[in-house]
Automatic annotation (TrEMBL):
This is Formin-like protein. The keyword Coiled coil applies. Residues 565-974 form the FH2 domain. Residues 481-491 have a biased composition (Polar residues). PANTHER family: FORMIN-LIKE PROTEIN (PTHR45857:SF4).
Length: 1052
């Protein structure tokens, strides 16, 4: 059989130019249908004309988009070659030339018409079909469309001719089978029987028709018809026509009866292409249903599988095509059940066993198709087993998920505990820092007082020295005056002897000053001794530093007029002291404790039982050792570093230069782009990471001054390093630091809002829930009652207590150290006030609020407001700018402000609400807003609720253990009673035996049954039977003998 296929090549051959058709260059083969080609080549036009004509050529080729895109990438020379090749091709014959010949072959009367025989000429039908196939494959797409048009209906003519040749082929096959049967019968009977079908008039007329029209062989015509179908389906328009022509697809499927394996492979390739199109799978199955009816198959695909498995010679192309077709038919269905059905059809035809034989074939292509089929086979039994395994696995997964959820819950609880512990430690650290500051302030004040006193002492000593020198001077003057007075006295005495005036009064004694004309101040006290040191500082006032001394019994100040005076409680036993921080009566006003009445609970709660559990002996309680905690603060002084030149190429010091180089590599943007992005606030070009990187390398004032000095000296800029040049350019950007801050603020704004808002809501919700909790108020009332019952006899009654005292409830232990005060309070609540057990349900969001710092929230809000004000100022500054960068920055700022101002305003209002709500709940519980933060305040309730739930579980476990112990004791008591009853029954039986023995002696024997029981000591029970045998003579006892008859000891 001659091949009608033309050869595809990639280079020019002879005088034929390769023509591109659907992405493949093919030569126009010989025959009348070939394209007429010329060798002339025109000069290349300009670019616009070249592109226009090349676009027209691509449109005429009807290529897929991907292949057309590939051809558009050719250079101008290749494009011009393609244009020339395409324009040189001209169709030799129109489509009607071939269609008229095919119609003539189909006309039964054509063999009797000389005109029609002349029109057909000497060429055979096979040659006509070959020329048609070449024209369909090589001519322009317009020629193909004309062939398939409604006027010519070329597809219908080609299908009719293929149907006619298939009918002839089936007749030839039946005739061949009949002849083989006749040969067999002739061999058996020795007679020659003539074939009726071979000599029938119909077959004679068909044979004469074929001979007169010079038609070719049916096998060749069918093969070339299939190739014509492939050429038609090679473009989108023709493929759609074939797809909608059901008879054409049926004819293609029936062509599988062709004996050529090459033809079968070509048919299977066309059917597989149709099957891959949406809706094509159903069309192919219908075509094989028609094949089954026409060829009288018992099962669909029976003939195909017979060709596949029972081959005369192994044709690899057919085997690969057949296996590919089976894969597409079976595995291109979405419905799994239908896929299993199709798979089972091929399984019944024996494909599974045959594929096992072919698994190790040397052909790689065939192995790929076989592996594709076997890998996608549905094993229903294995699927059922997998389904059962999956069910068990899913159950196991569910169990593991439950375990994982429990572990996650435990982890979250541990995290919450660790966070609570951190909050607690932070609170203690804050308190210790405050105490440290108070002590430092106190120390500074004392040092100031000491220095003041020293200055005063120094001044007084100086004044005393001055007065002493003054007095010494006055004494010297008085001594001089005394000497002059004594001289005058001697003169006067001489005059007296001669009768003068009376002598003057005696002079003052040494050391005595005469009365001065003006009164003098008394001399100052002597200066202190050298070794005495400065005076002692004043003592610290009581109560400083947060330490409160307990008031003496009866020394409490009288409560306000609106409050009743509480009475002391006199207990039967000495009780431990609850180390709480009591509130004074004037501190209770306006708090929750002003609403509580704990004295009424004294008649509700059984405090006598409480005293039995918590009574202590005469010995004092264990004291606590408080360790001092010191905190060391380290201060790091950052000195300005002198900028020095490195080899006259850098104005930065080495570390700074290296950091700038690293930052520039990370930034990876030219300076012009960086400058435009900064000036226009473009966060798309400079993302948040780049902005933060830029903020770290902003030139300092010292660096800016150095660069300006460098420029004033007119030194060459290109001698600086790239980093220095970059920094020099950065220093020229106006308000660089401010713009980067605004960009960072805009980029982080929404994240900050989303981070701070939930914290604000947690504080608001937690504050309101704690303040409005009625169950918590009742529980605090119970705690106050217990505390006053324990402390009022020593410290007087308390009207309230600090919430930090709740932590001490677990520290106060009972006499046997087995339970704490909180254990007893929880047990009392369970028995007397069971509705308070779930008080923690009213305390919502306290755990989240315990992790929040209101001070940090307000700081964040203030920082956001500062950033917003900065953005507004920058917006006002850019209003008058007309540059492109200024307008771009103005657009960014306006868009940000319009979308963000309301959010910030709302968050500020919510933050104020949180402050107010928290201040109200602090005041309501008697706490100070100065010393109590949310993470400290709410952490108290978090710890208390957790401790309460813990002791609740421990109490429940203790009650279960006590119930089990009581049941065991009861069982033991019942066992002892049963054992005693059995022993008593045994004694009763022994007594009956002894009575029967006495009756056997006729009454002459008296017996005494003596029981020695030591049941009180639980050691043993002794039963001693003494039987006395008296000898009676003449009515009186002559002799009495006692015989020990038996003794029995029963041990318990």
């Amino acid at each position: 059989m001659g091949s009608a296929d033309s050869k595809c090549i990639g280079e020019r051959g002879g005088d034929q130019q390769p023509v591109r058709n659907n992405g493949v260059y093919c030569t126009g083969g010989g025959g009348g249908g070939g394209a007429a080609l010329t060798k002339d080549k025109l000069p290349m036009p300009d670019t616009d004309e070249l592109e226009r004509r090349f676009t027209k050529v691509l449109a005429s080729m009807d290529l897929p988009p991907d292949k057309a895109k590939l051809l558009k990438q050719y250079d101008d020379v290749k494009k011009w070659d393609m244009i020339c090749d395409q324009e040189r091709v001209s169709a030799k014959d129109p489509p009607s030339h071939y269609l008229n010949k095919l119609k003539t072959y189909l006309d039964p009367k054509a063999s009797r018409s000389s005109r029609k025989r002349k029109m057909v000429g000497d060429s055979t039908s096979t040659q006509v079909l070959r020329d048609l196939e070449i024209s369909l494959r090589t001519n322009h797409i317009e020629w193909v469309r004309e062939f398939l048009s409604e006027e010519n209906r070329g597809l219908d003519v080609l299908v009719d001719y293929l149907t006619f040749r298939l009918m002839m082929l089936r007749h030839e096959q039946r005739l061949r089978e009949s002849m083989e049967e006749e040969d067999d019968m002739r061999n058996l009977n020795g007679q020659l029987k003539t074939s009726v079908e071979r000599d029938s008039p119909r077959m004679k007329r068909a044979s004469r028709h074929v001979q007169k029209l010079n038609m070719g062989d049916s096998k060749d015509d069918i093969h070339v018809c299939i190739m014509c179908m492939r050429a038609i389906m090679n473009n989108k328009y023709g493929f759609n026509l074939v797809f909608e022509h059901r008879e054409a697809i049926s004819c293609i499927a029936l062509s599988l009866n062709h004996r050529s394996l090459r033809t079968k492979a070509l048919v299977l390739e066309l059917l597989a292409a149709i099957c891959l199109v949406k809706g094509g799978h159903e069309i192919i199955l219908n075509a094989f249903n028609n094949f089954k009816d026409v060829c009288s198959e018992t099962q669909r695909f029976q003939t195909l599988m017979a060709y596949f498995m029972n081959y005369e010679c192994f044709h690899i192309e057919f085997m690969v095509a057949c296996m590919q077709f089976v894969n597409i038919v079976v595995h291109s269905v979405d419905d799994m059940n239908f896929r299993v059905h199709l798979q089972y059809e091929f399984t019944q035809l024996g494909i599974d066993d045959f594929l096992e034989k072919l698994r190790h074939h040397e052909s790689e292509e065939l192995q790929i198709q076989i592996s594709a089929y076997l890998d996608n086979v549905f094993d229903v039994a294995a699927l059922m087993e997998d389904s059962e395994t999956k069910t068990a696995a899913l159950e196991r997964v569910a169990e593991l998920e439950d375990e994982l959820a429990l572990m996650a819950e435990k982890i979250s609880e541990m995290e919450a505990e660790s966070l609570a512990k951190m909050v607690e430690l932070e609170g203690e650290l804050v308190e210790l820092r405050k105490q440290k500051e108070d002590l430092e302030n106190m120390n500074s004040k004392v040092q100031e007082e000491v220095s003041t006193l020293r200055r005063e002492v120094s001044q007084k000593s100086e004044e005393s020295r001055q007065r002493q020198s003054l007095l010494e001077k006055q004494i010297q003057e008085l001594e001089n005056l005394a000497n002059s007075s004594s001289a005058q006295a001697s003169v006067i005495s001489g005059k007296e002897s001669t009768g003068g005036a009376p002598p003057p009064p005696p002079p003052p004694l040494p050391g005595m000053a005469p009365h001065p004309p003006t009164p003098c101040a008394p001399p100052p006290p002597p200066p202190p001794l050298m070794g005495s040191g400065p005076p002692a500082p004043p003592k610290l006032p009581v109560g400083m530093g947060g330490f409160h001394a307990p008031p003496a019994p009866g020394s409490l100040a009288a409560p306000p007029d609106s409050m009743t005076i509480k009475k002391k409680v006199n207990t039967k036993y000495k009780l431990p002291t609850l180390n709480w921080v009591a509130l004074k009566p004037n501190q209770v006003r306006g708090t929750v404790f002003n609403e509580l009445d704990d004295e009424k609970l004294f008649n509700v709660i059984d405090f006598l039982e409480f005293e039995e559990h918590f009574k202590i002996g005469l010995g004092g309680g264990a004291g606590k050792a408080n360790g001092d905690m010191s905190e060391v603060d380290s201060l790091h002084a950052f000195g300005s570093k002198r900028i020095k030149k490195l080899e006259l190429t850098s104005l930065m010091e080495h570390t700074r230069l290296r950091n700038i180089a690293i930052s520039r590599r990370k930034l990876d943007l030219p300076f012009d782009m960086v400058s435009r992005a900064v000036n226009s606030l473009d966060l798309k070009t400079l993302n948040l990471d780049s902005v933060e990187l830029m903020q770290r390398i902003v030139p300092t004032d010292v660096e800016i001054k150095a660069y300006r000095e460098y420029e004033r000296e007119r030194k060459p800029i290109n001698q600086l390093t790239e980093e220095d040049q970059f920094m020099l350019n950065l220093s020229k950007i106006d308000r660089l630091s401010t713009k980067l801050q605004i960009m960072s603020f805009i980029a982080n704004f929404h994240d900050n809002i989303h981070m701070v808002t939930p914290q604000i809501h947690a504080i608001i919700t937690a504050s309101r829930s704690v303040k409005n909790s009625a169950k918590l108020r009742k529980l605090l009332e119970i705690i106050l009652a217990f505390g006053n019952y324990m402390n009022s006899s020593k410290r007087g009654p308390a009207y309230g207590f600090k919430l930090s005292s709740l932590d001490t409830l677990c520290d106060t232990k009972s006499a046997d150290k087995k339970m704490s005060l909180l254990h007893y309070i929880q047990d009392t609540v369970r028995m007397k006030f069971h509705d308070l057990n779930n008080f923690d349900a009213e305390l919502r969001f306290i755990e989240k609020a315990a992790q929040v710092s209101l001070e940090n929230i307000m700081t964040d809000v203030n920082e956001l407001e500062k950033g917003m004000e900065q953005a507004k100022k920058e917006n006002d500054r850019h209003r008058d700018m007309r540059s492109a960068e200024g307008q771009a920055a103005l657009a960014v700022l306006r868009d940000f402000l319009s979308n963000s101002e309301d959010k910030l305003r709302k968050m500020r209002a919510e933050a104020k609400t949180a402050q107010t709500a928290f201040a109200e709940v602090l005041e309501y519980y008697g706490e100070s807003s100065r010393s109590m933060a949310p993470n400290t305040f709410f952490a108290i309730f978090v710890r208390f609720t957790k401790a309460y739930k813990t002791v609740e579980q421990e109490n429940e476990q203790r009650r279960r253990l006590e119930a089990a112990s009581r049941q065991a004791a009861l069982n033991q008591q019942l066992a002892q009673q049963q054992k005693q009853q059995q022993e008593q029954q045994q004694v009763a039986r022994n007594n009956k035996i002894n009575v029967r023995k006495q009756q056997a002696y006729g009454g002459e024997v008296n017996y005494i049954l003596v029981f020695f029981s030591v049941c009180e000591t639980n050691f043993c029970l002794c039963c001693l039977n003494l039987i006395m045998f008296p000898v009676i003579e003449a009515g009186h006892f002559q002799e009495t003998k006692y015989t020990l008859f038996s003794s029995q000891i029963i041990w318990r």
